[in-house]
Specification:
This protein is an alpha+beta fold. The protein has two helices and five strands; from the N terminus they run E-E-E-E-H-H-E. The chain has a five-stranded mixed β-barrel.
Length: 139
Amino acid sequence: MTLDGLVDKVEGNMCAVRLADESSGHDCSACAGCSRKTAGRVVMAENALGAVVGDRVTIHAPEKTVIAAAFLVFLLPVALTVVGYAVGKYVLTGWYFALLGALLGLGAGLLMCRAYNRVLKKKADTVYKVESILPPEEE
């Protein structure tokens, strides 16, 4: 995933990049490019190209991170809901156990998503990398 933004701050080999309006995301640490717009989201990126404050840059998030996050957010809660339902329905034999199992499975999936997001926030400085420094915009 590729995003554009402005360098706000440089600290060693890392830089804070304020994402452009059309590519800024929400509270998800892995994928800043969803359709929910919040202007001015700042992410930390590895600055191997030596961008300085005020440079327009393109940053890149590895696809494996984005795909893992998408799997976790979209498929895991649904899969655990189905497994919980099946265990309740066929092992414990009862519709109320099926409902309880489905709710427990959904809850477990959502808790796992939240835990994964916390892990990504701790590793956020390694998720993005400066891919290129763009020429200044002409007005």
